[in-house]
């Protein structure tokens, strides 16, 4: 069996897929291959799955942005329809984004950052993993909510942005927690807030970092991302059901949860493939609003 990961090796999606593959193999009695097909915000890899034979041997490690936001970012060039061309199985993990600044910068709190940004509009810079990504959409939301102008610098992936943040070329980043935690733990990055409404209590080093409800209480910001599994549309229902059962067995285990949480994610699952499909439809409205408010377009 193949798990297509529509992003480059080494990131949080890749790590999650490999953790799943190791645990699914004995349950399903199949050898698993993780196949990285990055590009176009995940569309290239997802399109491979959408056009693959629906026999249950190829599945997609997907993301909230890929399933719910990309159709609004790539309005003219989206190569597939997530609702029509994929059969959704379940979510497997959930998490948020973390706001960090280079530890050499003077800002000790989110309020310090807001004051500095208002005093020098457009002078403080945030690097993201690309236009229309969760990090960019979160910046757009906090800029509007706080009445400030932090400049957005898009990169071709989170890795190059992290490199420039370490070098001090940019001032800050919103990115997924697993990618940033090694530098938080080393003292190179200072965390100022998480993008979720509430604090992230399952990562010890972040328990004192405020959520959006604390720093921007009237903004109603709650950036939640998730990873999930989908298969090609028309995959037989019994195959989808067996995949769902196997995935839920993995995701509900204490051992899998214990591997995820130090990285900054925790486990989540849906009671049925139809429940997850309905959840994706509901999430489309949320992400459409975020994309349209940001003005982002990738066509």
UniProtKB/TrEMBL annotation:
It holds the Pfam family TctC. Signal peptide: none annotated. Belongs to the UPF0065 (bug) family. PANTHER family: BLR1237 PROTEIN, TRICARBOXYLATE-BINDING PROTEIN. This is Tripartite tricarboxylate transporter substrate binding protein.
């Amino acid at each position: 069996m193949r798990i297509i990961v529509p992003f480059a090796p080494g990131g949080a999606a890749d790590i999650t897929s490999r953790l799943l593959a190791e645990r699914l193999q004995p349950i399903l009695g199949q050898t698993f291959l993780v196949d990285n097909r990055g590009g176009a915000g995940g569309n290239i890899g997802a399109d491979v799955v959408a056009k693959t034979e629906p026999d249950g041997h190829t599945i997609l490690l997907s993301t909230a942005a890929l399933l719910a936001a990309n159709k609004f970012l790539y309005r003219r060039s989206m190569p597939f329809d997530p609702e029509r061309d994929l059969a959704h199985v379940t979510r497997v993990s959930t998490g948020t984004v973390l706001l960090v600044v280079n530890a050499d910068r003077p800002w000790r709190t989110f309020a310090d950052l807001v004051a500095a940004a208002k005093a020098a509009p457009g002078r403080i810079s945030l690097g993201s993993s690309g236009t229309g990504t969760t990090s960019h959409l979160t910046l757009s939301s906090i800029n509007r909510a706080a009445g400030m102008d932090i400049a957005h610098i898009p990169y071709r992936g989170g890795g190059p942005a992290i490199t420039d943040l370490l070098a001090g070329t940019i001032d800050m980043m919103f990115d997924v927690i697993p990618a940033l935690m090694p530098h938080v733990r080393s003292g190179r990055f200072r965390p100022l807030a998480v993008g979720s409404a509430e604090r992230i209590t399952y990562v010890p080093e972040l328990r004192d970092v405020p959520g959006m409800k604390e720093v921007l209480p009237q903004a109603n910001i709650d950036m939640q991302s998730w990873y999930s599994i989908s298969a090609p549309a028309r995959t037989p229902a019994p195959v989808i059901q067996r995949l769902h059962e196997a995935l839920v067995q993995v995701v509900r285990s204490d051992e899998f949860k214990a591997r995820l949480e130090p990285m900054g994610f925790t486990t989540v699952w849906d009671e049925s493939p139809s429940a997850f499909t309905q959840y994706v439809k509901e999430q489309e409205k949320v992400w459409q609003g975020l994309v349209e408010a940001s003005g982002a377009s990738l066509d």
